[in-house]
Every structure is written in C-alpha cells, then in structure tokens.
Amino acid sequence: MNRKAILYIAVPAIVIAGAASFHRGKRNNELDHQATVKSEGTVPVTLVPVQERSFRPAVAFTGTLLAVNRAELKAEVTGRVTRVAVQEGDTVAAGALLGAQDEDDYQLGVQAAEAQAAQARAQALQAQRDNDRSVALLEKRSITRQAAQQAETAYNATRAAAQAAESNLGMARLRLKKARLVAPFAGQVARRAVQPGEMLNPGQVAFEVVDNRKLEVRADLPTEAMAQVKVGQRATFRAIGLDRLVEGRVAQVSPSLSQDGRTLRVRVEVPNPDGALKGGLFVEGVILGEGETKSPALPATLLKAQDRDAEIYIVEQEVARRRKVVLGTEQDGFRPVSGLAVGAQVVDSGKDLVGEGTRLRVISGAAPTSANGGPAAGGK
C-alpha cells in the first residue's frame, strides 16, 4: 500500500477519533456536574424578584411590516428593454433612471416631431405675415376681398397645423418619458424583474422600489377594541430576528368595520431611520390604551412562554416550589403575572435542573424569601 493510500485512510480515522473523544469528554463533564449536584444535594441558581410595575390596558395585534412608500413600476408602452441601470438592493434617489425600453427609437421619434413642429411654426408665422399684409392692402383697396379671405384661410390652416405638430411633439416626448422607468421616490430597489433584451408590454412589472425609512403594520382588531383604540396611541411589538422591543404609533383607525362586521382595521406607523427593520417581517405586539394599573411583573426574557400560561419555580426556605402563573402581554420588557406576590424570588439561571422540592443554592441575584415574604434563612 503506497503512502498516499495510507493518508486517505488515516486522516478520516483521526478526525472520527477526535470527534468521539470530544463528545465523550463533554458527556463526562456533564455527568460529573450531575454527580456533584447529587452529592451536594443542591442546585446552584440565580434569582429574580417579582416586581410591582405599572401597565396600561393593551390590545394585542399581529401583522406584517410593510413600507409606507412602496411602488411597483410597470411598463406603460410596448418595447424591448435596452438598458437596466440598477441591481436589487441599490439605493436610488427620486427620479433616478432604473431602466429604459427602445430608448433610441423613441428619442428619434422626438427629434422627428421637433423638426415637424419647427416647420409648422415657420409656415404659420409666414402665413400670419401674409395675412397681415393682405389686411393692410385691403384697407387701401389694393387687393380684392377674395384675395384677403384666401390669405386669412391659409393663416388659420397653418396655425392649426402648427398646433397639431406641437401636440404630436408632446405625445412623442410622453412616449419617451414612459419608455424610461424612474424611481418615484428615494428608496431601495426591492425587486428587478427584467433583463436587457426582454420585451415589456403595458402593465408588466419591471421594478419594485421601497422606502424602508417609514414602515407600517396593518392589523385587524376585534370589534371589542373599537372603544379602546385611538389615533396617536403607542404600540410596541417584537419580530423574529430582533432582540429589542420596537415602538410605533397608531396612525389611522378605519371609520367602519369590515364587511362581516367582526374586525376593525388599524394602521400603525413605525419610524425606521436606521433601516434595521425590513418589510415583510411578521410581528406580534400590543396597542397601549389610556390609564395605568399596577401588577406583579417579571422580565419578559425570563418567561419563555408566548401564550397565557407558564410554569415557574419560586424559592421557599431554600427549596424550589413549582407555580403556575397567568401572563399578560409584554410592555417595556416586562410581563404582568397573576398568581405571584410582589417580592417572591423566581429561579432564573439553573431552572432547567430544578424540579419540585429541589434544594437550591443561590450563587448570585436577590436573596430568596420565605413563604411569608421575609428573608429565608441562609439566603444571600
């Protein structure tokens, strides 16, 4: 067996052996940790106290983020695409050229119409001079009335022809303008649906431009929210991929209910000057009403459940006790909890190793409290 063949066999074997050794070591460390916990009889945890916080009445909503200014640019004339000036993702200014159809042909049409209009104007000007001269000669009786009328008729005809030529020139310029697809506002190219050489027909989408500096969420609320939701109210929401709470304002409340009478359409505007948010994100949030009520609360990051119920562990005499709580909607990073007293100590880090009756060892955070709310013996 040659050296190259030996390497082909040996290298994979070494990699497999190394991986197996790594996972074996990781498992041994986990078993050692569990053995230590079992021998000591305690689980190290950190605690978070239940706080009293103010919450406003809230109406939940779901929806999709969309740019307030967004436009699909469609062809208005038939023609072959001769130029594409942008790529998807490019930032464009208002009026910037995105693409063009048969631009040279339409430009030649404009030039021909300009020449025809110039010729018609010159003929009309000469006819006007002839008519003015005939009027003066008629007053001196130097020409017949019939000759004067012929001059006037010729002038009116050339003037009409000049007006028709100007109209044709305007149409040619309009066709050239329609053959050039330009950005209607400053933003980004979200979609480019054409390539040079393709034929475009009227109504066919060529580009999509969006301005993500101001977004909106259109949400359908239950009719019960009709008396609570007003223009100008604050709204907060979260979206997948974002680690922060986003804020917006109710910009519009529909003046009527949906056709089935079951939902109310509202529009929430969301400033996005840094462009961190993108159109198309699905969001879940709340519209905050007027007035405030105080309630026990916990950080939203501690409560993983997205529905109304959750299970947590509190500390009583250094022992974990399971509690089922009812959760409210998140506001400013906290969620109201029903079923816990203010000051109760809730297990945070280490909760995955805790069960009913587990003895706990607090390694950091607030001190545990006893069942009556006072400090527990031995708490830190």
Descriptive notes:
Belongs to the membrane fusion protein (MFP) (TC 8.A.1) family. InterPro entries: Beta-barrel_RND_2, MdtA-like_BSH, RND_pump_MFP. This is RND transporter. Residues 217-284 form the CusB-like beta-barrel domain. The chain has helices spanning 3-40, 103-139, 145-179, and strands at 43-49, 51-55, 58-74, 79-84, 91-92, 97-101, 180-182, 187-192, 199-200, 205-222, 234-239, 246-253, 263-271, 282-288, 293-299, 309-316, 319-327, 334-338, 345-347, 360-365. α2 (103-139) runs antiparallel to α3 (145-179). Helices cover 29% and strands 37% of the residues. A six-stranded antiparallel β-barrel has the order 3-10-13-12-11-14. A five-stranded antiparallel β-sheet has the order 2-15-18-17-16, with no helix packed on it. It has a four-stranded antiparallel β-sheet with strand order 7-6-4-9. Among the domains are: 37-55 and 292-380, conserved putative lor/sdh protein from methanococcus maripaludis s2 fold (Beta Barrel), CATH 2.40.420.20; 58-68 and 211-291, Efflux pump adaptor protein, beta barrel domain (Elongation Factor Tu (Ef-tu), domain 3), CATH 2.40.30. It is elongated, with a radius of gyration of 38 Å. It is built from three helices and 20 strands. The chain has 380 residues and is of the alpha+beta class.
